[in-house]
Amino acid sequence: MADYDAIVVGAGHNGLAAATTLAKNGLSVLCVEKTYGPGGQAATRELFEGFKHNVGAWALLVFRDEMIKLLGIEDYGLELIRPHSSYTVFGAPEDPCFLGYTDKEKLVEHLMQDHGPEAVEGLAGLADYMQTYRELIDKEIFKSPSSLEGLIANAPDAKTREILMKIVYGSAMDVIRQFFPDPNKHRCIQGSLCASAVDGTHTGPFTAGNALSMAYHYTMGDEYDFRTPKGGIGALSEVLAKSVEDRGGNIQYKARVKRFLIENGKILGVELKNGEKITAKVVLSGIDAHATFLGLVGEDHLPSDFVHRVKDIEYKTGYIQIHMTLSELPEFTGHLAFANDANLRWDMAYIPSPEHLTRCWQQYQRGQIPDDPVSYCGMPSVIDPSLAPEGKYTCTIFSPYFPYDIPKGKHKEYSHIMADRVIGQIAKYAPNFRDAIMDRVIVTQKYFENTFGLTEGDFASGLMHPGQMWDKRPVPGWGGYKTPIENLYMCGAACHPGPGVTCIPGYNGAREVLNTW
Ligand SMILES: Cc1cc2nc3c(=O)[nH]c(=O)nc-3n(C[C@H](O)[C@H](O)[C@H](O)COP(=O)(O)OP(=O)(O)OC[C@H]3O[C@@H](n4cnc5c(N)ncnc54)[C@H](O)[C@@H]3O)c2cc1C
């Protein structure tokens, strides 16, 4: 007799979403996690005494509130903070900033006042355009996905088909320039839009195929408004972990799975790094496909064409994060002085224009550190004081395009150069910023690879390229949650619908198990 009904590998938020769904339905569940706490890339940890930092993900960008009910965690006191503006995107002093007011009237007022009526029309037109894709994903979000090509071919009319083709195969700028045709106007708005497209892809703004990532960012959540759980992003996983335990499930931390126990094409359980063997009727993997199949299953147990497909998955990505503690908030000057209003300062983004982002992409492709990197500077304790001691602040800067192929022995030197550049961008407009930094730690894709086992450090668990989404996620022919190994399922961001803090792959993976239980 097996030790458990189900073992879930990884206590990332998706693994926990799967575990709690199974436990809620009466299965005996064990979740095994290699690190010392829950959340994976969406964890909040005390990196500096008395301060809490979001280790990776920092905001709910693509989250649907209905998940709280579907997972049955309504009574766990999860509090979502909704700031009155999601972001302040800035560039050159002559370019008006783009503010992501969550109140739609206030947003329109800002656009009219600072960017003119064309910007209101442009964003409204783009939202309408994206709605076509939202209707498609809404029908397919809670299931093993249909073929994307089939759905496009069966679009109700030629116009819808044309829109979907452009969203799936076009570049972000193909789409954006339909609504913002002038490269010299609305530069921060255009920069902000295309930055979402390069997130989770190995592309620049004009690379074909990344409009899909932009559409994903704008349609996966209820709205593209940023929210953060009180206590940090990790609070969501902590609630999920508590609900697993309340429903009789177990979570074992510092328990790294070394390999899966497989006989005659059927999974029987897992073997931990310490040699312990634990059996279960089903196993769900909340880690990426490369790590699951080539790391834990082993090529010998898999059909060779499947192995090739796993080896073909693109994971390449480079980025840097600087986690800091601040003795005081940056006091912005010049064209950013207005941001000193606390709720505007909490999330600053330096994205001057698509052309600027393209320059960064080109330098990154050549293995160079972008000379003027785009960056996101979050100060979450401004909207959630529970993250820092009174009068002090947390700050994290994220910047994409940290070179990927770095000459041996140069990783630390490169990361310090890039960190100084992105800190310099904030300091340029907030002269007190450098002196306000009390502590800092710099991490790159290497940290996420080593700590959470992400293949190539890829936070998308497989880039969001059209050939790696929908029915082709995690690999073509095995879209969804089942695998070629009997009773082994996938339940992490590696599968449909994809990355981000959504809980959906975890919930869907568990539902797939329950459908045949
Ligand atoms: C820097 C950064 C910024 C991001 N920003 C955002 C954001 O603001 N908003 C957003 O929505 N998304 C963001 N993301 C993406 C988001 O965090 C991820 O897509 C999401 O958290 C993935 O969740 P998961 O549960 O599928 O996987 P993971 O979080 O990767 O969880 C997998 C877990 O499995 C564990 N594990 C791995 N191997 C083993 C093993 N052999 N045995 C046992 N355990 C194992 C890992 O330690 C980990 O805890 C960001 C990611 C990063 C890295």
Describe the structure.
The two termini are 16 Å apart. The chain is 37% helix and 18% strand. Among the domains are: 178 residues, FAD/NAD(P)-binding domain (3-Layer(bba) Sandwich), CATH 3.50.50; 115 residues, no CATH class. The chain is globular and about 70 Å long. The mean pLDDT is 97. A hairpin with a 2-residue loop joins strand 3 and strand 4. It is an alpha/beta fold and 517 residues long. Helix 6 crosses helix 9 and helix 7 runs antiparallel to helix 8. The strands form 4 sheets. Strands 1, 2, 9, 10, 11, 12 and 18 form a 7-stranded mixed β-sheet that branches. The site of flavin-adenine dinucleotide has 37 residues, from helix 1 and helix 17.
Q: Roughly what is the average pLDDT, rounded to an integer? A: 97
Structural class of the secondary elements?
A: alpha/beta
What overall form do the CA principal axes indicate? globular
Q: What ligands can be seen in this structure?
A: flavin-adenine dinucleotide
Q: Which CATH architecture of the domain at 4-41 and 231-314 and 460-515 is right?
A: 3-Layer(bba) Sandwich
- Return the CATH class of the domain at 4-41 and 231-314 and 460-515: Alpha Beta
The CATH topology of the domain at 4-41 and 231-314 and 460-515 is: FAD/NAD(P)-binding domain
What summary fits the major beta sheet?
7 strands, mixed
Distance between the termini: 16 Å
Radius of gyration from CA coordinates = 22 Å
Number of helices: 18
- Relative helix content: 25-40%
Share in β-strands: 15-25%
Uncertain regions spanning at least 5 consecutive residues: none
